[in-house]
Every structure is written in C-alpha cells, then in structure tokens.
Amino acid sequence: MPDLSRYREKRDFRATPEPRGRKGRPRKSGLLFVIQRHAARVEHYDLRLEIGGVLASWSVPKGPSSDPRDRRLAIQTEDHPLQYADFEGRIPAGEYGGGVMIIWDRGQYRNLREGTDMAECRDGGRIDIWLDGEKLTGPWSLRRTGGQGERSRWLLLKRKGDGADARRDPLRFEPQPVVSGRTLEELLRPASGGSRTRTR
Ligand code: MN
C-alpha cells in the first residue's frame, strides 16, 4: 500500500528543504515519472513512478542505460510524495540523503500491462511502462529479483524500440537538469565554498 510514513520518519522537515507533501488521489492516466540525480554520500540516480497517489521509488546506483543489453540494479526505497517530483536542491549534511539533488529527467509514463494496475504490477515485481520524458522515451521494464518492499532488488531494463540506443549514453551526453536553469556544476558547488565531498 502506498504510504508516506516511512518517508516522514526518515526526515526532519525543520532541517531539510524537501517537501513534507501528502498523498494524492490515485490516477490511471497522466502518470508522473521523475529521475533525480542525487549527489549524496554515494552518487546515484533515483527513479520515481506515480503509483496510487505517491511516487514509488528506486535508487539506481549506475543510473539508467538506453542500451537494451544493460541491466541496471535498482533498489526499492520508501514511497515519496508526488510533490517530490519538483524537488531540486541541497539537503543539509547530516540529514537523511544529505547532498545535492537535481531533476535529471521528468515527464509522464503509461502502463503497458493492460488490465493490471500499477500497484499490482509493483506488488507482483513486474513493471512494463512507456516513458515520455525529455531524455528517456519508449518502453522500459523493472523486474524484481529479490526481497519484498523497501530494500527489494530489481533490474531496470531498456526495451528494444523507441529510445533504445547502445551508443547514446544519456548520463554522459545529457547531464543537465531539465527544470532549473542552473547548471549541474552550480548545483553541485558546495554552499560553504569548501572542498567537494562527492564520492565520484
Ligand atoms: Mn537518493
């Protein structure tokens, strides 16, 4: 069941600029997706899909690949509020997820498994979707390979067809945020002017 209690437990909203947010009404169409690049203790990408009025979330250590031969590990994390799709900024050091987050890609998606709603797809560990993002498009899949719920392990796969391209590495060639006008370098620059503490 979509639930924001874990999201709220992990955060002190007096300290972090992240939205407290609230659960939205479940929708069947116009579903939101976002991929955030998160320069935390270890840099990674966060994939979020609107399911049941919240953003179901996965941490993808290596980020998405547009090469259908690649399989990228995706670890399920706590559900986030829909308002999180607009979040870009600095989470203070010492807070959960401390570091900088940018909106790397965003758009809508649709469920390719007709007759099975997205909550069932997630619970069953099998998600097939069509992304309409600014960078990522076409058919993608997520397959659960171990565990259940938070911390469960999945694989993120690009399917052949629209948007598949083994030579175009979107992480490398399209690194800029899609929402803010600020460059990635500006957003990653430490506020204190101190030395960079990114892992890579
Ligand atoms: Mn993250």
Give your account of this protein's structure.
- By secondary structure, this protein is mainly beta.
- It has one domain (5-187).
- The chain has helices at 5-9, 118-124, 170-173, 184-188; strands at 31-39, 43-51, 54-60, 71-80, 89-91, 99-111, 126-133, 137-146, 153-158.
- A hairpin with a 6-residue loop joins strand 8 (137-146) and strand 9.
- The N and C termini lie far apart (35 Å).
- The model is unreliable at 193-200 (pLDDT under 50).
Which molecules other than protein and nucleic acid are bound?
Answer: manganese (II) ion
Rg calculated over all Cα atoms:
16 Å
Structural class, by secondary structure, is mainly beta
Number of strands: 9
Strands of the largest sheet, in order across it? Answer: 1-2-3-4-9-8-7-6
In DSSP terms, counting alpha (H) and pi (I) runs of 4 or more, how many helices?
4
Number of domains: 1
The low-confidence runs, each spanning 5 or more residues with pLDDT under 50, are 193-200
What percent of residues are in strands? 35-45%
Query: Helical content, roughly?
Result: 10-25%
Name the shape in a single word. Answer: globular
N-end to C-end Cα span: 35 Å
